[in-house]
Specification:
Helices cover 53% and strands 14% of the residues. The chain is built from four helices and three strands; from the N terminus they run H-E-H-H-E-E-H. A hairpin with a 5-residue loop joins strand 2 (68-74) and strand 3. The protein is elongated.
């Protein structure tokens, strides 16, 4: 169990951000849940650690939206695993999410770099 200091360098996700990150990860190719978690961890330089209690509800939500689809396959470890892939609708949603994200980053950056008016 991590103490308070162990959480200092962890990234907390804004609501809805996990969905966008999952879709982005699946753009690189189909993956099972553990593969998605590993990709997010690796691509974030170990700063982002998504728990299964957050991942699977998000994957199920994305599947209900029609943005991902899943099928059972054999994993690299020769075990049965559910593999997720992004759909055309998911790619469209990801493009919209990325556009909104970039706008939000620009707005936040402007506010955080601003100096008070005199």
């Amino acid at each position: 169990m991590m103490g308070r200091n162990g959480y200092r360098n962890r990234v907390e996700l804004l609501q809805g951000t996990l969905d966008m990150l999952i879709l982005r990860t699946l753009q690189w190719g189909p993956a099972h849940g553990y593969g998605i978690v590993q990709a997010l961890r690796t691509q974030s330089g170990e700063a982002l650690q998504v728990e299964t209690g957050s991942l699977y509800p998000a994957l199920h939500r994305l599947e209900r939206q029609g943005w991902v689809k899943s099928k059972w396959k054999q994993s690299e470890a020769n075990q049965r695993a559910r593999y997720y892939s992004i759909t055309a609708a998911g790619k469209k949603q990801l493009a919209e999410d990325l556009s909104r994200w970039e706008q939000m980053v620009a707005v936040m950056g402007g506010i955080l770099k601003a100096t008070p008016a005199e």
